[in-house]
Specification:
The complex is a heterodimer of chains A (289) and B (251).
Chain A lengths: L1 H5 L1 H5 L1 H26 L3 H22 L3 H25 L4 H22 L6 H6 L7 H30 L1 H7 L3 H27 L2 H11 L5 H26 L3 H19 L5 H5 L8
Helix pairs in contact in A: 3-4, 3-8, 3-10, 3-11, 3-12, 4-5, 4-6, 4-10, 5-6, 5-10, 8-9, 8-10, 10-13, 11-12, 11-13, 12-13
Chain B lengths: L4 E10 L2 E11 L4 E5 L6 H8 L7 E6 L6 E4 L13 H6 L3 H4 L7 H13 L15 H15 L3 E5 L7 H16 L3 E5 L3 H7 L2 E6 L1 E7 H4 L2 H8 L23
Parallel strand pairs in B: 3-7, 3-8, 5-6, 6-7
Antiparallel strand pairs in B: 1-2, 1-4, 8-9
Helix pairs in contact in B: 4-5
Classes of the chains: A mainly alpha (289), B alpha/beta (251).
Chain lengths: 289, 251
């Protein structure tokens, strides 16, 4: 019975195995990125970036149909342009990063919508908007795994400056010039992982598998290593749970995965060991020293 | 030995308005220099120029060391105290010069971090998150990081603000230790008693240098009165500076 519900779908159907592999790769790459987005108070930046890559993907789609590489490439270009321009403007002028990003992603979005509407629309675009993790083919799976690998390697390279820039940016500026490049590379990784996610979850929900696990992790760990491990683990659990729910109930897979993550998040808000609500209501008697 | 810092007609400021005006002078190696002056006199601006965060509007700041080899403790520290990092790891960032982006922290480095924490009396705080520290403990931690930076030139911007007497005493002992090790230390201060007691040399800044020399000769009531007369506000209608070397009353 339990076997039928939890394991059989993956044993019986190849597309479920692919979906599981895909969601595990997405979790490995996206969740650590999400942790840094959260710690840098850029959670909503992920959302803005998701809007920014949409037009690029749509343009790629218009030029070469449902071609994975064209759409990925278009999304990357649009996302990089917005991320880099926004980053540069905020670094050389008084405009703060959020305002600068908002301006650029709106431009990108408006441009994209204009292009799409001038060249006619297509319902296949729904695929871009909402993704379909149950239809991952080999090349797509490889691209997702490749991007996740790149993400982990690059994160390892920029980890130290990234952490110090979060905690004490002025100090980093006085000891090293790595701060600005590390920040820009990080923004690029955000884009890579959003593009990665849109094949499976669509542009609108891709950010969910980055931000929700990061939020969950905040409730269970006080240090950044623990947070990243927990975020990856919870993203995987949500991915697996979402696929099972989707398989059993015919709920679309993308929303099911994000809803599973949301359920974990709500549970963490109440019962998390670090500042969860239950912990706050029943903190135990105060200590002696 | 060349002077670690030499100012040649340095003007530093924002939007063309000078905050430090035509400063000339040299800081000799091993100097323990107090930089004093009213709020808005340009102390922080001068320090930002020294560590290379702010480029001079005119003139040059000559350094015998690279700006990145100067340890700098800013006045308003932009530290995100909610960031989940332990005191040990935070202080460890002071080893950046030797460890860089990738270098591991071996046993020797960990020893140095532990000793630095002991030097500021923060034993037992290693695994605490930085967000749990009090103001004074925070300042001790920042001094521990400066200690680890092992810099020949150390710049401290109002390091004893809102710090209690005992912590101040502990930290000033550290400053004197650096002085004993022939490091060049500059500190922006407001406490005249402390300046008289511990700092052999003083720069009295009021946009321009009002006086610079042995502390006893700088801290005269005439000099202090002149510094106080300095006008803080920028004058939007000010004309371009002709380059006279008088400490200006308005800019």
């Amino acid at each position: 019975m339990l076997y039928d519900a939890l394991i059989a779908p993956f044993v019986d159907f190849e597309f479920m195995r692919r979906a599981l592999a895909g969601v595990i790769a997405l979790a490995l790459g996206g969740a650590p990125i999400g942790v840094f987005l959260m710690l840098r108070r850029m959670s909503l930046v992920g959302d803005a970036m998701a809007h920014a890559i949409l037009p690029g993907a749509a343009v790629g789609f218009l030029f070469s149909g449902l071609n994975l590489f064209a759409m990925t490439f278009g999304g990357l270009i649009a996302g990089f342009s917005v991320a880099l321009l926004a980053g540069l403007v905020s670094r050389v002028t008084v405009i703060k990063e959020d305002a600068s990003l908002a301006a650029f992603y709106l431009v990108s979005l408006a441009l994209g919508v204009t292009i799409v509407s001038m060249h006619g629309t297509n319902i296949d675009l729904l695929h871009v908007l909402f993704g379909n993790i149950l239809a991952l083919d080999d090349p797509t799976l490889l691209v997702i795994a490749f991007n996740a690998t790149i993400t982990l390697v690059v994160m390892a390279v920029i980890y130290r400056p990234l952490v110090i820039e979060c905690v004490d940016p002025v100090f980093l500026r006085t000891v090293s010039r790595a701060g600005a490049p590390a920040h820009l590379v990080f923004l690029a990784l955000v884009v890579v992982n959003l593009v990665n996610g849109f094949h499976a979850l669509g542009t609108l929900l891709a950010v969910g598998l980055m931000i929700l696990p990061a939020g969950i992790a905040r409730f269970w760990s006080r240090d950044i290593t623990g947070m990243m491990l927990i975020s990856v683990a919870s993203a995987m659990v949500a991915g697996y749970g979402g696929l099972v729910i989707s398989f059993q109930t015919k709920v679309p897979s993308g929303p099911a995965i994000i809803l599973a993550a949301a359920a974990l998040y709500v549970f963490s808000v109440f019962f998390g060991s670090v500042s969860g609500l239950a912990r706050q209501l029943f903190p135990g008697r105060h200590l002696e020293a | 030995m060349t002077a670690p810092l030499a100012f040649r007609d340095v003007t530093l400021g924002y939007d063309r308005h000078p905050a430090v005006h035509h400063l000339n002078g040299e800081v000799a190696p091993g100097t323990l220099l107090a930089v004093i002056g009213p709020n808005g006199a340009g102390k922080s601006t001068l320090f930002r120029g020294i560590v290379g965060i702010l480029k001079p509007l005119s003139g040059t700041i000559a350094r015998s060391v690279k700006p990145r080899d100067i340890a700098y403790l800013p006045q308003s520290v932009d530290i995100d105290r909610t960031f989940p990092i332990s005191v040990f790891d935070f202080v460890g960032t002071g080893l950046w010069r030797s460890s860089g982006m990738f270098g591991g922290l071996g046993g020797q480095a960990r020893d140095r971090i532990t000793r630095a924490l002991a030097a500021v009396d923060l034993n037992g705080f290693e695994n605490r998150n930085i967000g749990t520290l009090s103001g004074g403990q925070m300042q001790r931690m920042l001094f521990a990081r400066v200690l680890l930076q092992d810099a020949r030139v150390i710049v401290l911007d109002e390091p004893f603000n809102a710090i209690d007497a005992r912590t101040t005493l502990d930290l000033i002992a550290l400053v004197r230790r650096w002085h004993g090790e022939q490091r060049t230390v500059l500190a922006a201060l407001h406490d005249m008693e402390m300046v008289r007691a511990h700092f052999p040399e003083t720069l009295l800044l009021a946009r321009g240098a009002v006086a610079w020399g042995p502390t006893a000769q700088v801290l005269t009531s005439d000099n202090l009165a002149e510094a106080r007369r300095m006008c803080e506000a920028f004058d939007d209608t000010a004309t371009a500076c002709a380059g006279d070397h008088q400490p200006s009353q308005a800019a």
